[in-house]
Design brief:
Largest sheet of chain A: 3 strands, antiparallel
CATH class of chain A: Alpha Beta
Order of helices and strands of chain A: EHEHE
Strand order of the largest sheet of chain A: 2-1-3
Organism (chains A, B): Occultella gossypii
Number of helices of chain A: 2
Radius of gyration of chain A: 16 Å
Enzyme class (chains A, B): ligase
CATH superfamily of chain A: Phosphoribosylformylglycinamidine synthase subunit PurS
Subcellular location (chains A, B): Cytoplasm
Number of domains of chain A: 1
Number of strands of chain A: 3
Helix content of chain A: 25-40%
Oligomer: homodimer
Largest interface: A-B, 35 and 35 residues
Keywords (chains A, B): ATP-binding, Cytoplasm, Ligase, Nucleotide-binding, Purine biosynthesis
Catalytic activity (chains A, B): N(2)-formyl-N(1)-(5-phospho-beta-D-ribosyl)glycinamide + L-glutamine + ATP + H2O = 2-formamido-N(1)-(5-O-phospho-beta-D-ribosyl)acetamidine + L-glutamate + ADP + phosphate + H(+)
């Protein structure tokens, strides 16, 4: 059973309040050295059977049309997860 | 300026209603062949300067202590982003 990973991030020009909140909290909690934080989403799609090229193409289409909002988000990666 | 990527997923034994909702929506929208979906988070931490081993260690600690809830989530990856 293969697994496809889809990674989605807010577009650079979009304000990211969750990321801003984390970036503000880090130095207060002793984590310095991080200039900014952005928060996005990571999906794992469990595939019936092999992760063929067709499955990856379907996952890419689903990432663009269902998993992300193309107005405010970019799909940064669609790849097959390493077996674990 | 380097960027550290932190990936966090709900633990396998934790119910993931967002993932379940996506998994239910996909076949209705014509995407078949996906058995299940889980939704997690992906952070990009912008680093002041180089992504040294110390910076990565700090990012790992922040991932465990601030970015994730260790009761219900696993940190699945902390790595330096490829330059783009």
């Amino acid at each position: 059973m293969a697994r496809v990973v889809v990674e989605i991030m807010p577009k650079p020009e979009i304000l990211d309040p969750q990321g801003k909140a984390v970036a503000g909290a880090l130095p207060r909690l002793g984590f310095t050295g991080f200039a900014s934080v952005r928060q996005g989403k990571r999906f794992e799609l469990e595939v019936d059977g092999e992760a063929t090229e067709e499955v990856l193409a379907a996952a890419r289409k689903a990432a663009e049309e269902v998993l992300s909002n193309p107005v405010i988000e970019d799909v940064v990666s669609v790849h097959v997860a390493k077996e674990d």
